[in-house]
């Protein structure tokens, strides 16, 4: 049998979206197969969404399965896609998104979807990273990184020019370093010449570079501020797939803004339910 999906992307970070009510016997196996860009539809993950449309604003429970078949507690661009999907269904301009990392509010703002991110932390036990104090400009596996959790862990390295970095070579040793009990995403950033930053991220779970990473963009902005590289608000961050804007609201929480596109719809095969 087959079930429907909708394909969305946020600045090139792309997801199949499947209603959580659909019969999917093994979500991890479906993500491994269908995220594969040669044998499957091809995506950076599958978002299983359980909308609760009777609330005002509507709510949606988001679960991200990544191409390695495992879940991740939070995804900035995925949350923006989940918000757009829910807005498309309901006509609402605001959505509450329940993630494993906490509840986020999303609002439409012209062409952009803006989300208030979960609280960020540099506290080692909360990242998690094995250290006695926040990891700032420390060398891990030969790379100078600062470590923050913006919903998921990121090791952020500021370099002169992100184009000159061989990310597929330098990121995996850091991503798998013993210092990170749950692994980490690895993000490099360089000044864009206009007060913002260019960004490239090697994602845990994708095990490769993606065109954009929302939690990574927020990590670039908050680490840049913590290291005194900028005091701008907002901070413009440019992953390869587009333009994201990180701001800081009066609750001290970062917000992430950028465009979202509905690409196409389709169907994927799943095992039918076993008859009793
Ligand atoms: N692309 C995402 C991050 C998804 C989770 C990440 N790969 C992890 O395992 O921590 C984003 O936009 O934030």
UniProtKB/TrEMBL annotation:
It catalyses: (2S,6S)-2,6-diaminopimelate = meso-2,6-diaminopimelate. One of its GO terms (cellular component) is cytosol. One of its GO terms (molecular function) is diaminopimelate epimerase activity. The keyword Endoplasmic reticulum does not apply. It comes from the Archaea. Pfam families: DAP_epimerase. One of its GO terms (biological process) is lysine biosynthetic process via diaminopimelate. Substrate binds at residues 13, 66, 76-77, 185, 203-204, 214-215. It is found in: Cytoplasm. The active site is at 75 (proton donor), 213 (proton acceptor). InterPro entries: DAP_epimerase_DapF. PANTHER family: DIAMINOPIMELATE EPIMERASE, DIAMINOPIMELATE EPIMERASE, CHLOROPLASTIC. Belongs to the diaminopimelate epimerase family. This is Diaminopimelate epimerase. It comes from Natrinema zhouii.
């Amino acid at each position: 049998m087959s079930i429907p999906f909708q394909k969305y992307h946020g600045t090139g970070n792309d997801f199949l979206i499947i209603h959580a009510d659909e019969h999917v016997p093994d979500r991890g196996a479906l993500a491994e197969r269908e995220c594969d860009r040669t044998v499957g539809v091809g995506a950076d993950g599958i978002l299983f969404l359980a909308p609760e449309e009777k609330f005002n604003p509507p709510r949606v429970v988001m679960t991200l399965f990544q191409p390695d078949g495992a879940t991740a507690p939070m995804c900035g661009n995925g949350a923006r896609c989940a918000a757009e999907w829910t807005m498309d269904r309901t006509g609402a301009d605001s959505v509450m998104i329940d993630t494993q990392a906490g509840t986020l509010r999303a609002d439409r703002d012209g062409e952009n979807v803006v989300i208030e991110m979960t609280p960020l932390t540099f506290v080692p036990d909360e990242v998690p990273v094995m250290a006695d104090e926040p990891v700032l400009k420390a060398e891990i596996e030969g790379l100078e990184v600062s470590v923050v959790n913006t919903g998921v862990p990121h090791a952020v390295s500021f370099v002169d020019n992100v184009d000159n970095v061989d990310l597929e070579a330098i990121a995996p040793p850091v991503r798998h370093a013993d210092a990170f009990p749950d692994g980490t995403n690895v993000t490099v950033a360089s000044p864009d010449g206009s007060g913002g930053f260019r960004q490239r991220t090697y994602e845990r779970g994708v095990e490769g570079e993606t065109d954009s990473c929302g939690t990574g963009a927020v990590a670039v902005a908050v680490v840049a501020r913590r290291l005194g590289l900028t005091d701008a608000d907002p901070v413009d961050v440019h992953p390869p797939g587009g333009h994201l804007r990180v701001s800081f609201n009066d609750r001290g929480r970062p917000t992430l803004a950028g465009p979202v596109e509905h690409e196409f719809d389709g169907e994927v095969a799943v095992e039918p339910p076993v008859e009793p």
